[in-house]
Amino acid sequence: MYHTWMRYFTPGDVHQRLGLVCLGVGLQHGLLPTVGPRTLDHHVAVVISAGSGWFREPDGQRTAVTAPALLWLTPGVPHHYGPDPAGGWDESFVDFSGPATATYTELGYIEPDRPVVPLCDTAAPRAAVGRIARAARRGNPILEVETGAAVHELLVALRRARADTNAEGDPVLGALARDAFQPLSVAEHAARHGMTPAELRAAVRRGAGCSPKDYLLGIRLGRAKELLVATELPVAAVARRVGYEDPAYFSRLFTRRVGAAPVRFRAQQGRAVPGGWSNRVPDPEHPPTIST
After folding, report:
1. What is the C-alpha separation between 27 and 47, in angstroms, rounded?
2. Interatomic CA distance for residues 98 and 43, integer angstroms
3. What is the pLDDT of residues 176-191, one digit of tens each?
4. What is the pLDDT of residue 170?
């Protein structure tokens, strides 16, 4: 015996330009029937939150699936899977498509080469699926936009829920972030971790979906923007604070990546708050009160 609930959608071309569109959502549990062999023309994320079963790849290799786990079904790749006939399993699934899937794949959020991914928890992914299910009510005027936004959220939740992801954050990425403002080369950063540059590149690519250089640059430019907006420091001083001794090089780099020179960026933002900067992350649900 099993229970199934599902909805399917047909977004228009204009919604495709949002990057991701949701094509369907479903929640099922019990002694579900076997799926496939079949081949789809879009992506599906299947979240297994309880129970166990199996997944058969195109080459015939059969992999055991034990909850919590994720099954990636990718376009054009045959798949065949199902729960154990004795106990069944609980699953939720989301069908999706769109041009942003290529970028999410490049960043490692979608893993075509790893169709079975162990998870540490399914609460956050199932919450994202739940938002899609609630948005799927008949007559919802913002159905396509609301469900598409939730697919982005789902991909982030699945990335965080991977069993090979440290809940406290990747230690290599954390250490790089702490040292980001020091004038160190990638080779010097690698040596600090007892790694070769190639090993560091692989670790950062796996954890952040980019090269160490781009990861460090993102942190440096983010901090530079904060200093330009919230302080009156000269551009040369901002450059030194984020690890660049040559202010001219910093300005060229900033302009190329941000699209505006540091001075122009500061003028556009117009939010300088001398003496009012805080390193404490605020809680949007409980903003601090202003004492009078």
Report:
1. 9
2. 9
3. 888 888 888 888 888 8
4. 66
Q: How, if at all, do strands 62-66 and 43-56 pair?
A: antiparallel
C-alpha distances (whole Å) from 188 to each of 37, 197, 245 are: 50, 8, 17
Closest by CA to 274, choosing from 238, 235, 242, 229, is 229
Q: Which has the higher per-residue pLDDT, 218 or 292?
A: 218
Residue 133 dihedral angles phi and psi, to the nearest 5°: -65, -40
Strand spans (E) along 16-61:
21-30, 35-38, 43-56
Read out DSSP for 196-264? -HHHHHHHHHHHHSS-HHHHHHHHHHHHHHHHHHH----HHHHHHHTT-S-HHHHHHHHHHHHSS-HHH
Of the candidates 71, 74, 37, the one whose C-alpha atom is nearest the C-alpha of residue 51 is: 71
Q: How far is CA 220 from the centre of its chain?
A: 21
CA 225 to each of CA 17, 215, 244, 259, 270: distance values in angstroms, whole numbers, following the listed order? 29, 16, 14, 12, 12
Tokens of 98: 């769109």
Burial bucket for residue 54 (CB in 10 Å: 0-12, 13-18, 19+): middle
DSSP lists the bridge partners of residue 161 as none
pLDDT category of residue 255 using cuts at 50, 70 and 90: very high
pLDDT at residue 269, as a whole number: 83
- Cα separation, 266 vs 228, whole angstroms: 5
**d(C-alpha 139, C-alpha 141), whole Å:** 6
3-state helix, strand, coil in the chain (%, to 5): 40, 20, 40
